[in-house]
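Running co-folding for adenosine-5'-triphosphate.
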Amino acid sequence: MSLLTVEHVEAYYGESHILRDLSMEVDEGEICALLGRNGAGKTTTLRSIAGARPPEVQSGSITFRGDDITAEPTEDISIRGIGLVPEERRVFSNLTVEENLHLSEVSRNSSNTVGREVPDLPDVRPLSELYNAFPRLDERQNQKAGTLSGGEQQMLAIARALRQAPDLLMLDEPYEGLAPQIIDDVEDAIARINDEGTTILLVEQNAAAAINIADKCYIIDQGGIVFEGGAEELREDEETRERYLGV
Ligand code: ATP
């Protein structure tokens, strides 16, 4: 079943037309990868879905669980259950791991201004669950976030977004700047989160790593979708990978 549907979206930064007739679907329970070169429009897509401004979505529609969320403020979209971990890992360096996790306690139920019933949501996800998903953070609960490695900071940024128990977690280039071994750890963590029921929309330039854990892949080029298919299909389609991803 489709959790998120993006249909014919045209998005702009001022006069610059970036997303062109962009359509994609994310199904409940899957890991969907959105791949593309530098500047292709990946971050713009995530920001459009999350209601972050800019860009402006000038036409087309974005629906989540069948509700049109295209013109909604970003706070309301977050309450509906869409979490975004932006490219720049936002952690508070001078606070401990645990303090960072507490700071993300904006409960989806208590701050619900959408006026929609959200009866089955946990208030916030218990820290114990997050520590189970990220054993490295468990070991470093009282360590200042600024002293964590890049991979650990990425895990903390993801754990902070998970604290609000999103149904759809969008990750913007989570592997950027990480050593291959650390990428494996973050990959495992993403796969575990997905196994536990969170749908994932993963944006990456590192196509090989993303294809490893994705169920479905889209490729975006110059603001439009140029490929849609299963991860296996893309792994075998050397021509498409070379043409649009350079790998
Ligand atoms: P990257 O891997 O570099 O983040 P991307 O695929 O995420 O690439 P976007 O960040 O979505 O690409 O950028 C798409 C286009 O929009 C690029 O041409 C970029 O220069 C432009 N762009 C991005 N942000 C802005 C902005 N705030 N104002 C104007 N143009 C922008």
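Result summary
DSSP finds ten helices and ten strands in the chain.
The longest helix spans residues 180-195.
Job closed.
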